[in-house]
Automatic annotation (TrEMBL), chains A, B:
<dbReference type="Pfam" id="PF00440">
    <property type="entry name" value="TetR_N"/>
</dbReference>
<dbReference type="Pfam" id="PF16925">
    <property type="entry name" value="TetR_C_13"/>
</dbReference>
<keyword id="KW-0804">Transcription</keyword>
<feature type="domain" description="HTH tetR-type">
    <location>
        <begin position="6"/>
        <end position="66"/>
    </location>
</feature>
<dbReference type="GO" id="GO:0003677">
    <property type="term" value="F:DNA binding"/>
</dbReference>
<dbReference type="InterPro" id="IPR023772">
    <property type="entry name" value="DNA-bd_HTH_TetR-type_CS"/>
</dbReference>
<keyword id="KW-0238">DNA-binding</keyword>
<protein>
    <submittedName>
        <fullName>TetR/AcrR family transcriptional regulator</fullName>
    </submittedName>
</protein>
<keyword id="KW-0805">Transcription regulation</keyword>
<dbReference type="InterPro" id="IPR036271">
    <property type="entry name" value="Tet_transcr_reg_TetR-rel_C_sf"/>
</dbReference>
<dbReference type="InterPro" id="IPR009057">
    <property type="entry name" value="Homeodomain-like_sf"/>
</dbReference>
<dbReference type="InterPro" id="IPR001647">
    <property type="entry name" value="HTH_TetR"/>
</dbReference>
<feature type="DNA-binding region" description="H-T-H motif">
    <location>
        <begin position="29"/>
        <end position="48"/>
    </location>
</feature>
<dbReference type="InterPro" id="IPR011075">
    <property type="entry name" value="TetR_C"/>
</dbReference>
Length: 193, 193
DNA sequence: TGAATAACGTACCGATAAGTATGTTATTCA
DNA sequence: TGAATAACATACTTATCGGTACGTTATTCA
C-alpha cells in the first residue's frame, strides 16, 4: 500500500550515470544530481541510498551495458582482425565527434576512486578482466578459423589489447591530433597476426 | 624590506604535489594542504595564488621532473630494447611496492581535469607529446646503431609505446594480478624489432 | 633607530556540501 | 470508505568548502 513511485528508477539512474560519467564522483553534487535526475533529494536517498551507493549503482549499470556492447561488436564480425580494427576505430571516432571527451566511466573511476576504495578497485578490475576475456575468446575464434597464427598467445595478446585500449581512451582526453591515435591503432593492431 | 619568508617554496610545493598526486584536485581541501605543507592558508595564497594555480604549479613541477627522469633512464642504456624493457618493468615494480597506487600525476589530471579545463588539456597533452619525442629519439638511436630494423616507423611506434604505458599505469590502479601486467609488457615490447 | 613593509597566525566570511526531519498528498486494502 | 502507508516537496541541520580581513611580529633600509 501507499503512494506509487512517480519516477522511472531506470531512467533516473541513467541520468545519474551520465552525470557521474561526465564529472566524476567528487565534482558531482547532490544538487547537480537532483536537477539532472528530475527528482528531489529524499527520493534519491530512498531509492538508491547515499551518494556513493548511487554512484555504485550507476557504475554497475554502465559496466553491464558496456560489456554487452563490446561483446556483440566483436562477435558480429566474421573477421577477427576486422572486428578489432572497426571496434578500435569506432571508439576513437566517437570520442572525436563529441565536443568534450567523457572517455570510459569505468576507467575514470579506476583513476579517481580505485586507489582509495577497495570496492571500486575490485569492481573496475573485474570489468576490465571481463572485457579481457571477451577479447581472448575473439582471438581464439580467429585462431580456430585460421585467420590468426596458431602460435598466438591469446590470453597475453588480449591483455595487451585491453591495456592499449585503456591508454587510447585516456590520452584522447587531452585531445591529441587525430593522426596520433590513428598511427597508434595501426601499430597496436599489428600485434594481431 | 619586510619580514623574510620562513618556509622553503620548493619544499612546500613538493608537499602540495604529493598530496594532489595522491588525492586529485577535487578531493584535496585547503585544510589538507595547510597541514601537509606545514604553512597557513594566507601563506599559500600569497606564494602560489588560489587552489587551481597551486595545483598547476605542482603539476608543472611534476612533469618537468618526470620528463628528465624518463630521459636519463632511456639515454643511459646502450641497448634500446633493454632500456625500454627495464623502464617498463621498473614502472610496474614501483607501483606494486607501494601499498596503494598513485600512478602518474599527469595521467590522473588528464582524466580528472583535461576534459573540463583547456589549460590542463594542453598541459597534459604537451607532456605526453614530449615523452613521445623522447621515446622516438631512443628508437631512432636503435635504428642508427643497427639494433632495430631500418624499416621501423619510429614516430608511430613511440606513440604506441606511450599509449601502452598510459594503459599500464591506469590499469595498475585496479591492482590486477602481477602476471597480467608482466604478460602485457612482454607483448608490447615485441613491437620493438 | 624608527618608519615602512611583508610574512605571519587567528579568526572570520558567505556559499555550498551531504544528509534528514517534517508535514502533505496520493494510493492501497481491509 | 476510511485507516494505514509510502512517496512527495519544502525546508532545515551541521559541517566543511575556498577564500580573506585584520591585527601581530619580524625584517629592512633610510
Amino acid at each position: 500500500m501507499g503512494r506509487t513511485r512517480e519516477f522511472d528508477e531506470e531512467k533516473v539512474l541513467d541520468a545519474a550515470m551520465q552525470l557521474f560519467w561526465e564529472k566524476g564522483y567528487e565534482a558531482t553534487s547532490l544538487s547537480d544530481l537532483t536537477s539532472r535526475m528530475g527528482i528531489q533529494r529524499p527520493s534519491i536517498y530512498s531509492a538508491f541510498g547515499d551518494k556513493k551507493e548511487l554512484f555504485e549503482a550507476a557504475l554497475r549499470k554502465y559496466t553491464m551495458s558496456r560489456a554487452s556492447h563490446v561483446r556483440t561488436r566483436l562477435q558480429n564480425n566474421p573477421s577477427v582482425k576486422e572486428a578489432f580494427r572497426t571496434f578500435f576505430e569506432d571508439v576513437v571516432a566517437e570520442e572525436y565527434t563529441e565536443s568534450r571527451s567523457r572517455g570510459c566511466f569505468c576507467i575514470n573511476t579506476m583513476v579517481e576512486l580505485a586507489p582509495h576504495d577497495e570496492k571500486f578497485e575490485i569492481l573496475t578490475r573485474e570489468h576490465q578482466m571481463y572485457l579481457s576475456v571477451i577479447f581472448q575468446e575473439t582471438i581464439e575464434r580467429g585462431i580456430q578459423s585460421g585467420e590468426l597464427e596458431t602460435g598466438v598467445n591469446a590470453k597475453a595478446l588480449s591483455q595487451a589489447l585491453i591495456v592499449s585500449l585503456i591508454g587510447l581512451t585516456v590520452i584522447m582526453k587531452s585531445r591529441p591530433k587525430r593522426s596520433f591515435v590513428d598511427n597508434t591503432i595501426k601499430v597496436i593492431l599489428t600485434l594481431l597476426k
